[in-house]
Design a protein that fits this description.
Elements: E1 26-34, E2 37-45, E3 52-57, E4 64-65, E5 81-85, H1 94-104, E6 109-110, E7 118-119, E8 124-126, H2 142-154, E9 173-174, E10 177-178, E11 180-187, E12 193-200, H3 237-257, E13 269-276, H4 280-297, E14 309-318, H5 325-334, H6 336-366, E15 370-372, E16 375-377, H7 380-384
Helix pairs in contact: 1-2, 4-6
């Protein structure tokens, strides 16, 4: 059930309950695992003509590229792709591979009349997963960024998005538990779609330490979480006690496997998108309210050891209000058009926070226990229950 809606028609997800429910958006993943690797890249590709974009960074240790270009006061009005990557600051090289792919196709900020005279602007953000596969120098570069964008371009429009251990979520960990990629969407009564994708890699926890319940477990639409394994949102006390013991043991084992003491850094990265026509300033506000969704599902959040970053995207395929041209003129005379636009934007802002909370839960449910030379990271379902019977997988 939804934790925020009290009246009106029942909310419904998009066809895939994914970021790709926003028409025109495509998502691609690339990853490397094994032989010391546990990292990857996720790329979001815009439709032809690009998309309006904004960003809000609230973590204390961000790693970003080209985010200043998204400031509404600055020149670049539309972009063609966003890259989320592992590898901390090293991993930002992945955006170079994505930019090269776009340049080869003449996509980017046009600076001359020639077809090749473009400068692709590819905002990117990185999360910290260094050493989690066992090899400190295993981190994404330009090749992996290109691979992720190629995968996005090859994907069908409106297709499924792989969750869990995929792309930027490959090496993600949240509070010692395995993190990963999650996604969710909602279709508003106006017809607009709002959707989110997140790579959950947090210093904070996704679950209440006193009960074992996922903080976002009560934000779902219909039975979406139950269908992915969350049969019992509130675990019984005995199960919770055993799970906490196992999680503590896994954390200790991960520390034991580290040959050198490493400062525990993290960062959760997210994209919130809509097909409603937002200005860049309105998209900036959507990025900001997206962080409210993170705060509902991850506690604590936005710490000095996180670099939490939310991008907001608008493909602009639907007007904010349904007024025709003549109606618009009348509305302008009365001020009603401005009023209805504010109401429409507010609905999108609220939905952006909601879908991001739900995407975090999907990331937790899609994750699988990962055991590498760099650490032991149990999944939520391994600790608390299985899709079949609600009992622990072990």
């Amino acid at each position: 059930m939804s934790g925020t809606r009290t009246s009106g028609p029942a909310p419904r997800t998009g066809p895939r309950n994914a970021l790709t429910d926003v028409p025109g958006l495509r998502v691609g993943h690339a990853a490397r695992t094994g032989d010391g690797w546990l990292t990857g890249v996720t790329a979001v590709l815009a439709p032809d003509g690009g998309m309006a974009a904004a960003v809000d960074v609230r973590g204390g240790g961000p790693g970003t590229r080209e985010t200043d270009a998204l400031d509404p006061r600055n020149l670049v009005a539309r972009i063609d792709a966003v890259v989320l990557t592992g590898g901390s600051a090293f991993g930002l090289d992945a955006a170079s591979g994505a930019a090269a792919w776009l340049e080869e196709r003449g996509r980017g900020f046009r600076v001359g009349a020639g077809p090749a005279q473009v400068v692709p602007v590819v905002p990117a953000a990185a999360l910290f997963d260094l050493g989690r596969g066992g090899l400190w120098t295993a981190r994404p570069g330009a090749e992996l960024g290109r691979e992720a964008l190629e995968a996005a371009a090859a994907a069908e429009e409106g297709g499924p998005v792989r969750q869990g251990i995929a792309g930027a979520g490959t090496g993600a960990v949240a509070g010692g538990m395995k993190g990963g990629v999650g996604t969710a969407s909602i279709v508003l009564p106006s017809g607009a779609t709002v959707a989110a994708l997140v790579a959950v890699n947090a210093s904070g926890s996704l679950l209440d330490p006193s009960t074992g319940a996922l903080y976002g477990a009560w934000t779902g639409v219909g039975d979406e979480f139950r269908a992915h394994g969350l049969r019992h949102p509130l675990p019984d006390a005995a199960l919770h006690a055993r799970a906490q013991e196992r999680l503590a043991a896994a954390r200790e084992e991960s520390r034991r496997r580290q040959t050198d003491e490493v400062r525990q850094l993290n960062t959760t990265l997210a994209v919130v998108a809509t097909d409603a026509a937002l200005t860049r300033a309105q998209a900036q506000k959507l990025a900001g309210t997206g962080h409210d969704g993170l705060a509902r599902a991850i506690r604590p959040v936005h710490l000095l050891t996180d670099g939490d970053t939310v991008f907001a995207l608008s493909t602009g395929r639907l007007p904010l209000t349904g007024a025709g041209e003549g109606e618009a003129e009348a509305e302008d005379r009365t001020g009603w058009r401005a009023h209805t636009e504010v109401a429409a934007v507010n609905e999108i802002l609220a939905a952006g926070a909601d879908v991001l909370s739900r995407a975090v839960v999907h990331a937790a449910l899609a994750a699988r226990t990962t055991d590498t030379p760099g650490g032991l990271f149990p999944s939520y379902l391994d600790l608390y229950g299985s899709p079949a019977d609600g009992g622990p997988l072990s």
